[in-house]
Amino acid sequence: xxxxxxxxKTENSEKSKFCSSCGTALVITQSKxxxxxxxxxxxFRRCFDFRGRSTRAEYWWAILFLILVSLVLAGIDALIGxxxxxxxxxxxxxxxxxVLLIPEISLGVxxxxxINKSGKLxxxxxxxxxSFFFPLLDSISLISFGLSLPLLWWAIQPSNKETNKYGxxxx
Length: 171
What we know:
Strand content: under 5%
Helix content: 40-55%
Oligomer: single chain
Number of strands: 4
Strand order of the largest sheet: 1-2
Order of helices and strands: EEHHEEHHHH
């Protein structure tokens, strides 16, 4: 993917930050929406990257992937007898959830950055994660639901089209 200068229309390499001809700062754009396979690649490639931005399409494709992985792991847990119906999770599901926890959080932080919000707002999910690890705390479930609503609202918002303090848009 090449970057084209908005001033002189010169084609520049993918890694260029400035136009090789006129020196103008390049805004990195994509010509199409992120596809499901591309979003999964980005999810794993940027799994420990808490900087930068992730588009709405990149975020929701990755969330779909995480849901599918959870369902497959739950099915395997049920087949091999490691699913605990009282807790609502099995060994493989719990292990997969722990392995994907940091990449999932980094994705959420980048999505918040994309709409020019602080990544620290992801901490609103802390009560929800606590309720998974301590299922006896039923009052946390209601609190976590209420706290997660703003995050859901922000996740469905369109990307901020301008460069913000978290970087240029990934259109």
